[in-house]
């Protein structure tokens, strides 16, 4: 069971990290969808979009790397998984509480992926 949880955790981490990279790459298209009246708002939009994508990438890579390098059992891995799960759930919760239907489709997909991975990490912690 522990091996299955490890590999699913690694897979989901890679998927989330990949989505974060994709999120950063499509920032130009996303910025063009929102008509910004001034340049400062456009820069703020691009900066927040890239930051969110970077954070998703980070939260996908770090737990997956810990699982690859050390497995599920060490206390340090549990600490990383706990903090990552908390961050993922808070980040996705922000999108859900601010009205998921009002966000662009990539934000919606990212929020669902974050929530799934966050809940999975909590499940891993509960089962190990």
How does the SSE layout of this entry go?
Blueprint: H1 2-25, H2 27-33, H3 39-70, H4 75-97, H5 105-127
N- to C-terminal distance: 9 Å
Low-pLDDT regions: none
Strand content: under 5%
Overall shape: it is elongated
Query: For the CA atoms, what is the radius of gyration?
Result: 16 Å
SS summary, helix count:
5
How many strands in all?
Answer: 0
The secondary structure category is mainly alpha
The main sheet comes to:
none
The proportion of residues forming helix, as a percent range, comes to over 70%
What is the N-to-C succession of helices and strands? HHHHH
Provide mean pLDDT, rounded. 88
Short description:
This protein is an all-alpha fold and 128 residues long. The protein has five helices and no strands.
What do you see in this structure?
The chain has 128 residues and is mainly alpha-helical. Helices cover 85% and strands 0% of the residues. The longest helix has 32 residues. It is elongated, with a radius of gyration of 16 Å. The N and C termini lie close together (9 Å). The mean pLDDT is 88.
